[in-house]
Amino acid sequence: MPKLKSGSNEPAEIDLTPMIDMTFQLIAFFMVLLNFTKAEVDDRVKLPTSELAKPPEQPPEHPLTLQVIADGRVLFLGDPVQIENIGGYLDREKARLAAEGANPSDTLVIIRAHAKCPTGRVQDLIKACQQARFEKFALRASEKK
């Protein structure tokens, strides 16, 4: 029970405004955090299934996720780009990595390719990444149950 004001029989009021403000700030923070996590997943990419697919044991330090849609184009910030024109985008990623103190050779390139994407297009993407000095690759698939 709240303490009574000195010399009065009325109970003291508790100001809940700071607690409500903090609650809304936490809600906004987690909403933004969840949106960044979903940025690496696009509904236009339906992964192939595999019995050998397993989730990674731990997340990579400097991942670069590339998503290939069914027609063989790569998604950058939601916009489809031809693999032949990907060099400029990879250069931007290298600049971002350099700002974080990482090298392209330290970066794990995660390729999420649509199940109906031609295999040759994924190979072309890997070749373009290798020309930009990226060396580590991981292909994603859905786990077959």
Task: Please characterize this protein's 3D structure.
This protein has 145 residues and is an alpha/beta fold. The protein has a domain of 95 residues. The protein is built from 3 helices and 7 strands. Strands 4-3-2-5-6 form a 5-stranded mixed sheet, covered by helices on one side. A two-stranded parallel ribbon has the order 1-7. A hairpin with a 5-residue loop joins strand 2 and strand 3. The termini are far apart.
Low-confidence stretches: none
SSE class: alpha/beta
> How many distinct helices?
3
Classify the beta-strand content into a percent band: 15-25%
Please give the alpha-carbon distance between the first and last residues. 56 Å
What would you call the shape?
A: elongated
Q: Residue-averaged pLDDT, rounded?
A: 80
Describe the protein's topology.
Layout: H1 17-38, E1 49-50, E2 63-68, E3 74-76, E4 79-81, H2 87-99, E5 108-113, H3 119-131, E6 136-139, E7 142-143
Attribute tags:
alpha/beta, single chain, 145 residues, 3 helices, elongated
